[in-house]
Design a protein that fits this description.
The chain has about 350 residues and is of the alpha/beta class. It has an eight-stranded mixed beta sheet. Strands 3-2-1-4-5-6 form a six-stranded parallel beta sheet, with helices on both faces. Strand 11 and strand 12 form a beta hairpin. The protein is globular, with a radius of gyration of 20 Å. It starts with about 25 loop residues before the first strand and ends in a 9-residue tail after the last helix. The model has no long low-confidence stretch (mean pLDDT about 95).
Length: about 350
C-alpha cells in the first residue's frame, strides 16, 4: 500500500541533494524578519537556483539589517503609509514570496501576494480558519499561481522513511499512533505564541507536527475529540486530541506551551512498532522493533537546518509550472484547517479573524 502522503520528487532522483539546481534561478522575497525567517533564509541561500532578492519589515532599518546579514539585495520597510510587504510585492523582479508573519496576518498578505502575481510559500498554519484558507486556494487556482503551506517536515527523508515503513506492512496493521510536542513558553500577552489577535496558542503553532504523524501513517480521521487548557486570554496553552478511524485505529496527540515532553512519535502495528528519536518534527533516528526482536536503528542527516527539502520542492514545482505540491497539496491544508476549526470549537477558542 502507498503512504497517505506522497513521496517527494527529490527522493526518486539520482542526485538527492536539495541544494542542486533543478532549473532557472528564482528571485525570492521574504516577508518578516523573525526567527523562522532567519532560519529559512539561511537554508534558502544554500540552493544553487535561489536568489535572495528582497526582505520586508515594518521598520526600514530592520529590513536593511536583515538584508545585509543574510545577503538580500533589497530591504523594504514601511514608508508613507505603505507597508513594507506592499512595497516588496510591488517589485516586479520577485518570482516567489515566503510569508513568515504571525498566523493572523497570513490571509491578508498571501492574498495581496497572489493578487500581485507572486507564487507563495506561507508558514503554517496557512490561515486562522478554513474560510480564509479556502479563499486563498480559490484565488491561487484562478490566477494559476503556486501556493503551499510550509510544513517542512513532510519533505524530510526521516519522515518520509517513517511513512514508508508504516505503509510497507513491516509493522503489520497500524492500530494506534501517539505523538507529543511541547516546551514551556514564557508567557507574554504580546508575544506571537500567546497573543490572541495573532492566532496564538499551541494548536495553530505546533499541533501540525504531532498531527503529521497521524496524517502520514493513517490519513485524515473520521472523528476528532479534543480537550485543552485555555488561559484567561482565550488562547489554548495545551491541547490533547484523540483521532478515530472507521477501521478502528486510534491516535493520541499532545501539544503544549506549558511543559517539556519527550517529543516522541510511536506508530504501533500488529507485528511491531516504530518510534522517532530526536524531535518529532525533525527525527535524527528511527527505531523499528518487530515483535520482541532486537530493534533496528536508521540514522538520518539533513542538509542545512532541514528547510532545504521543502524549498527544493517549491522551487522545482514553480520551475515546472505546477501550482501545488503533490506532497503538500492544498486540499490537505484546507482539511487541516477544518480539523483545527473543529478542535477550537470543542476548546472554546476563537480569534478576531473569525468574525471577519
Amino acid at each position: 500500500m502507498s503512504a497517505p502522503i506522497a513521496k517527494p520528487w527529490l527522493s526518486s532522483q539520482s542526485d538527492q541533494d536539495p541544494r542542486s539546481a533543478t532549473g532557472n534561478t528564482l528571485k525570492w522575497g521574504v516577508v518578516a524578519t523573525g526567527g523562522i525567517a532567519r532560519s529559512v533564509s539561511e537554508d534558502l541561500a544554500l540552493l544553487a537556483d535561489a536568489e535572495l532578492y528582497a526582505v520586508s519589515s515594518r521598520g526600514q532599518e530592520t529590513a536593511d539589517n536583515f538584508a545585509a546579514a543574510y545577503g538580500f539585495a533589497k530591504g523594504y520597510g514601511d514608508d508613507g503609509g505603505v507597508h513594507g510587504y506592499q512595497r516588496l510585492l510591488a517589485d516586479d523582479s520577485i518570482d516567489v514570496v515566503y510569508v513568515a508573519t504571525p498566523h493572523a496576518q497570513h490571509h491578508q498578505i498571501v492574498l495581496a501576494a497572489l493578487n500581485a502575481g507572486k507564487h507563495v510559500l506561507c508558514e503554517k498554519a496557512l490561515t486562522i480558519n478554513a474560510r480564509e484558507a479556502s479563499e486563498l486556494i480559490d484565488v491561487a487556482r484562478k490566477k494559476n499561481l503556486f501556493l503551499m503551506e510550509a510544513i517542512w517536515s513532510r519533505f524530510l527523508p526521516a519522515m518520509q522513511r517513517a511513512f514508508d515503513i508504516a505503509a510497507s506492512g513491516e509493522l503489520g496493521d497500524v492500530h494506534w499512533v501517539s505523538a507529543d510536542l511541547g516546551f514551556p513558553a514564557p508567557y507574554s500577552p504580546t508575544s506571537r505564541l500567546w497573543a490572541r489577535q495573532d492566532g496564538g496558542g499551541a494548536l495553530l503553532d505546533i499541533s501540525v507536527y504531532p498531527l503529521l504523524w497521524a496524517l502520514g501513517t493513517l490519513g485524515f480521521p473520521q472523528t476528532v475529540s479534543a480537550t485543552g487548557v485555555v488561559n484567561d486570554d482565550g488562547v489554548d496553552a495545551q491541547n490533547a486530541m484523540t483521532l478515530g478511524y472507521n477501521h478502528g485505529a486510534q491516535v493520541q496527540l499532545t501539544s503544549s506551551l506549558l511543559a517539556h515532553g519527550p517529543r516522541i512519535a510511536t506508530v504501533a502495528g500488529s507485528l511491531g512498532y516504530l518510534q522517532s528519536v530526536g524531535s518529532i518534527n525533525n527525527p535524527s533516528e528511527l527505531l523499528v522493533r518487530i515483535g520482541r526482536g532486537e530493534p533496528r536503528r536508521e540514522v538520518f542527516d539533513v542538509v542545512g537546518r532541514g528547510y532545504t527539502y521543502e524549498l527544493r520542492e517549491v522551487t522545482r514545482c514553480i520551475q515546472q509550472g505546477l501550482v501545488e505540491s503533490p506532497v503538500m497539496p492544498l486540499e490537505d491544508s484546507l482539511n487541516t484547517m477544518r480539523l483545527f476549526d473543529g478542535v477550537r470549537a470543542q476548546l472554546g477558542v476563537s480569534y478576531p479573524n473569525d468574525a471577519h
